[in-house]
Amino acid sequence: MIGRQTGRPLSTVLAHRFHRLAWRPALVATVAALLAILMGGELSEDRSMWAVISTFVVFLGTTSYQGTRARVIKRIAGTLSGAAASVLLITVCGHQAWILVAAMALSVFGWAYYILHAYARGVFFVTMLVGLVYGQLGVAIVPLAELRIEEVCAGCLVSLAAALLLMPSTTARAGAVLARE
Q: Are 75 and 156 in contact (CB under 8 A)?
């Protein structure tokens, strides 16, 4: 029935639909997550989830190596700046709970506001929030920030490698579109 509606043979329609399915990004994200589990576990058994989470959020909405690379750069930039900001705030205002609570509220707002249209800023705020919460709970902030940066970088590097090996480039996609026209 599908082939009759389009006037094309059913095998051609099914092959086109199979090619358009999301199996490729899902496979890339899964491979990257499995490798991130291994790398993250080597860095820290307690916080290895940060490496794995990085693989998932880096691949959200990306369909090419270049898109993944851009997300990796933004994720690392947001993580570095958010970790630095949380260390600074905990160090300077660690005994003034009301300032930290206000900064946490600002972080939640900033994350929700920016995450969909300014990814690096959204990552900055969520990283700052994580640091503030852990710092408020009494966790040593500098080693925690260092570990967060290491875990995020591990997840991002794995994602970048998986995308390079398993995802198409935007130039290849543009060439395929031109060939069809």
A: yes
d(CA 153, CA 55): 10
Q: Give CA–CA dist 77/85, Å, rounded.
A: 12
Structural domain spans, the chain: 2-180
Q: Cα-atom radius of gyration of the chain, to the nearest Å?
A: 21
| Gap between the Cα atoms of 181 and 172, Å rounded | 15
Neighbours of 177 (CB within 10 A): 9
- Could you tell me the pTM of the whole model? 0.79
Angle at 139 between CA 137 and CA 141, to 5 degrees: 115
pLDDT digits (tens, 9 = 90+) for 35-92: 999 998 999 888 889 999 999 889 888 888 999 999 999 999 999 999 999 999 999 9
- Coil/strand/helix, residue 103: helix
Tell me the C-alpha distance between 28 and 65, whole Å. 11
